[in-house]
Amino acid sequence: MGSTVDAREIAQFAAIADAWWDEEGAFRPLHRLNPVRLRYIRDRLCAHFGRDPEAPKPLNGLRLVDVGCGGGLLWEPMTRMGATVTGIDAAEEGIAAAKAHAASVGLKIDYRAATAESLVAAGESFDAVISMEVLEHVADVDAFLAACRDLTRPGGALALSTLNRTPKSYLTAIVGAEYVLRWLPRGTHNWKKFIRPSELAAALRRQGLDLADLTGIEYSPLADRFSLGRDLGVNYLAFATRP
Ligand SMILES: C[S@@+](CC[C@H](N)C(=O)[O-])C[C@H]1O[C@@H](n2cnc3c(N)ncnc32)[C@H](O)[C@@H]1O
Ligand SMILES: [Mg+2]
């Protein structure tokens, strides 16, 4: 299997790593997405592992890895929910931003500049793998999912999100977000690398993983809010399990 890293992509994320915790900066959409995707991760993990999602620390004791964690936007809240989270990213600059932020808010840090395949080679394994908005940036989706599977213990789970390849995603995620609203630097996304839900389902199946759920992330421009829904046409979440 080839490397999962696309050097051009990593350089692009490294160049804007200072912006990770700027809620109005280049990662604004991820900050806006955080509440809905965190609710999805919490509820799915709780259902899968038989936890109470309303408990103060619903993920207590679970060992998670956040693959492509960037500045740690998910890592921090998942840590607060009681999980032991290892955050890894191929961009060292992102990891530096993540470490600095976690230290500034007094959280115990396990961030590493690493790829999923390097953790597999080191023999690491977790209850669940979380990898949000990374699939459309990797060099080889099959190799990436194979590494994510190997990091998941049998009986464990994977929570993923990515962008669908539709005319609507071209209009909103590329033309809208990069050119009209200028939320993201131009060239952040390559529409050809977006992944249809049917393609993700087939790729998960090739790795021996069971797709348990697909949920859409819908954006309301008037409210400037994201919500979970049935429309998979732009951004969507997937939950899979390892038998
Ligand atoms: C759009 S950001 C998402 C960050 C974070 N998951 C979130 O949603 O807040 C994508 C991240 O994936 C990282 N990345 C891309 N390809 C990777 C790979 N093959 N292995 C590890 N990290 C990767 C990038 O450096 C970048 O930080
Ligand atoms: Mg993206």
TrEMBL record:
Keywords assigned by UniProt, alphabetized: Methyltransferase, S-adenosyl-L-methionine, Transferase, Ubiquinone, Ubiquinone biosynthesis
Leading EC class: transferase
Binding of S-adenosyl-L-methionine, residues: 37, 68, 89, 132
GO molecular function: 2-polyprenyl-6-hydroxyphenol methylase activity; 3-demethylubiquinol 3-O-methyltransferase activity; polyprenyldihydroxybenzoate methyltransferase activity
Database matches in SUPFAM superfamilies: S-adenosyl-L-methionine-dependent methyltransferases
EC number: 2.1.1.222, 2.1.1.64
Alphabetized Gene3D superfamilies for the sequence: Vaccinia Virus protein VP39
Domain Methyltransferase type: 65-159
Pathway as given in its UniProt record: Cofactor biosynthesis; ubiquinone biosynthesis
Catalytic activity: a 3-(all-trans-polyprenyl)benzene-1,2-diol + S-adenosyl-L-methionine = a 2-methoxy-6-(all-trans-polyprenyl)phenol + S-adenosyl-L-homocysteine + H(+); a 3-demethylubiquinol + S-adenosyl-L-methionine = a ubiquinol + S-adenosyl-L-homocysteine + H(+)
GO biological-process terms attached to the record: methylation
One Pfam match: Methyltransf_11
Superkingdom of origin organism: Bacteria
InterPro entries xrefs: Methyltransf_11, SAM-dependent_MTases_sf, UbiG_MeTrfase
Family: Belongs to the methyltransferase superfamily. UbiG/COQ3 family.
Annotated function: O-methyltransferase that catalyzes the 2 O-methylation steps in the ubiquinone biosynthetic pathway.
HAMAP family, alphabetized: UbiG (MF_00472)
UniProt-listed PANTHER family: METHYLTRANSFERASE, UBIQUINONE BIOSYNTHESIS O-METHYLTRANSFERASE, MITOCHONDRIAL
Protein name per its UniProtKB record: Ubiquinone biosynthesis O-methyltransferase
Originating gene: ubiG
